[in-house]
Amino acid sequence: MLQKHLENHTIILASGSPRRHYFFKELDIPFTIDVREVEEVYPPHLKASEITNYLAQLKASVFQDISENEILITSDTIVWKDGIAIGKPRDRDEAIAMLQNLSASMHEVFTSVCFTLQKEQITVCDSTKVWFKELSLSEIEYYLDTCKPFDKAGSYGIQDWLGYIGIEKLEGCFFNVMGLPTRLVYKTLMEIANR
Known about the structure:
Elements: H1 2-5, E1 10-13, H2 18-26, E2 32-33, H3 49-61, E3 70-81, E4 84-86, H4 92-102, E5 106-116, E6 121-132, H5 137-147, H6 161-166, E7 167-171, H7 174-178, H8 182-193
Parallel strand pairs: 1-2, 1-3
Antiparallel strand pairs: 3-4, 3-5, 5-6, 6-7
């Protein structure tokens, strides 16, 4: 459906995430991939969605050559717990510590998506609350050794084994936890296309 509305636009997805690529294919949105290096550092005073908004926009800032019919899409996801942003783990030990911190508690997942056009920029954000059961060390180690979620914020993928056995409750968009609030992407692209 979107494909027809976007036939006069070129979508550039600036993400190396296989999950985001999958979502765009499933939404039937034709896109090209262009990932450019950027140091993902944000001012320390930013909180929650302010962080993901800033980083999604920062990833767009390295593109200075947007043409009239192009829509550049950048995105960022963080896990937020106890007033602290939890990103991707540096190593296995940090991943264990992250998952032990998330065990038997609730955290939030924030994902921002930035749409950059030649003359404007639109940023949308979604948040989802996730409750984990108490995770044993053996469950955490099994998950890390089996699924190797070291490229994921918070060291887990909700669609993986740990999500199957560990999530007690969810409030908000499931796909947002996977890294893309698909309904917001669809809604925003429809609004852009129908101007």
